[in-house]
Amino acid sequence: MVRPRYFFSETFISLRRNFFMGFTAITTVAITLFVVGFFTIIVYDIQGIISSVESEVELAVYLEDEISEELKDYIEKEVLSWEETDSVNYVSKDQALERFREQNEGSDILKEIEGNPLPASFEITLSSPEKIDQVALRFYDKDGNYIEGVNDVIYGKNYVNKLFSITAIVGTIALLIIIVLLLAAIVLIFNTIRLSIYARRKEIEVMKLVGATNWFVRVPFLFEGFFEGFVGSVISIILLYFVGNFLLIRGERVIVDTMRIKELAIVGSSGVVLYVYIGVAVLGGLIGILSSAIALRRYVKI
Amino acid sequence: MNMIEFKQVSKIYEDNTVALKNINLEIKKGEFLFLVGPSGSGKSTFIKLLIKEIEETEGSIFIAGRNICNLKSNRIPQLRRNIGCVFQDFKLLPNKTIFENVAFTLEVIGKPVYEIKIQVPQVLKLVGIFSKINSYPHQLSGGEQQRVSIARAFVNRPPILLADEPTGNLDPGTSEGIMKILSRINLIGTTVLMATHDRNIVNSMRRRVVELEEGEIIRDQKRGVYGD
Ligand SMILES: Nc1ncnc2c1ncn2[C@@H]1O[C@H](COP(=O)(O)OP(=O)(O)OP(=O)(O)O)[C@@H](O)[C@H]1O
Ligand SMILES: [Mg+2]
């Protein structure tokens, strides 16, 4: 005996008449899932930023002005043969000056420059940035001086090392926080729905006393739980969308500008936002219906 | 044929209150029976056992020849659909209108909507509460709620009707009206069991009277009176 018409109208009548309870459940779902979703997006974005910083780690090897063409070629070939090397870019003295001019256009510094004081250099990017220390060491001889033809080796040593350890720690902590937030959200939603069913346990008892089967009592409550969870998650997705678009992107622009990162994973670029939306929607409906089901087990006993 | 039969039934509540002691009773199909006795004598307990709202501690209860004591839990709804019950505390659904409260008994057995729309107003007219069809229980007086409770118990024409003090909140005039309804229900073959304190009603009806005292049957009288 399936009666969809009865169950649907029953669900919506019940939602209307128990407005406050339903409203509380929907708000709880919306707020808790918003917090979880928001945090997840932020974490992924921060990781995106960090990895785009990581990928920019490069080593600048400045050459002596008097370096011979053969030595220069030899060094370039040598560096290219290393497996850690991703690319090598030779910047001649002229190119270096050109670049300097571009970067300091309009500045008084340019007037004070006589001749070309800038050295030529190799700009080396690594395929495995965490090996930067080892690679840098190869430009020193065993006494700790630079090898022949090399004047200076520059990379943000401390900065880079810190970045790597931070990435790992932040990743783990963020994952833990997301899990805790998620658990808190589930418990909170479950409790809210459980309370709303508890408040109606007498009603359930009466329905059963006049001959309703367990399923007949249960189905409208399950629909209600699903509806509350789903509507709540849709609201949180809308919130995430607006907050994501206006707040996060603006915030990230500031980071981009201050940190001078060229390619940045801005919100959405990692595709995680879509997954968060889908996750929130599925989670909302699922928590809603499961909470109702679990709570009903307690109160719909014969 | 016995519609209801109690065999050595006892009920002891969790707090060791002995509510019923070794009850033996047979009620025939189509009979009208008053269950009388002072407050706390076990009348409501008797009725609750019949719809399995509570479990007996000892003995067996038969309804239409079937032992309901070891009924599987998924058979209980079926049992309850065959027993209309007017509860002492009405037990109306607070979030449903009077129409929906009465209709619920019919929804549960899968009656089609058009039948529900005919039968519910009919039965509400019968108990004289039709004008409140769209009100909620809390908007009704005690006596009015009681009549809704009677309407709900009777709307699907069950073979057994249990009424726990159905005139408890009513003035003598309205009580008389309710008794007329119960008599009419009984006349069409329904077995009616009514727990009551109402001396006048019992004395005027002259039906079978079973008197309880401290959980025991102390009197079982055909065409009886309330007692002294
Ligand atoms: N749930 C319960 N737990 C413990 N004792 C109970 C419970 N329900 C009833 N009793 C006790 O069982 C006895 C019989 O109660 P019951 O409700 O059957 O009396 P009654 O005859 O219907 O009384 P009244 O005329 O006041 O309605 C009383 O002593 C009562 O206190
Ligand atoms: Mg009673």
Write a structural description:
The complex is a heterodimer of chains A (302) and B (228). In chain A, strands 2-3-1-4 form a four-stranded antiparallel beta sheet. In chain A, helix 1 packs across helix 9 and helix 7 runs parallel beside helix 10 (272-299). By secondary structure, chain A is α+β, with helices and mostly antiparallel strands. Chain A contains ten helices and four strands. The longest helix of chain A has 46 residues, at 214-259. Chain A has helices at 4-17, 19-54, 69-81, 93-103, 109-112, 132-137, 157-198, 201-209, 214-259, 272-299, and strands at residues 58-63, 85-91, 121-126, 150-154. Helices cover 33% and strands 27% of the residues of chain B. Chain B is built from seven helices and ten strands. Chain B has helices spanning 43-50, 76-81, 98-108, 113-126, 142-154, 172-187, 199-205; strands at 2-12, 18-28, 32-36, 58-63, 66-67, 83-86, 160-164, 191-195, 208-213, 216-221. The mean pLDDT of chain B is 93. The chains are: A alpha+beta (302), B alpha/beta (228). Chain A binds chain B through residues 1, 3, 5-6, 14, 17-18, 200, 203, 206-214, 216, 302, and chain B through 51-53, 73-74, 76-78, 80-81, 85, 87, 91-95, 104-105, 107-110, 113, 152. Residues 13, 15, 17, 19, 37, 39-45, 88 of chain B line the site of adenosine-5'-triphosphate. Adenosine-5'-triphosphate binds at residues 13, 15, 17, 19, 37, 39-45, 88 of chain B.
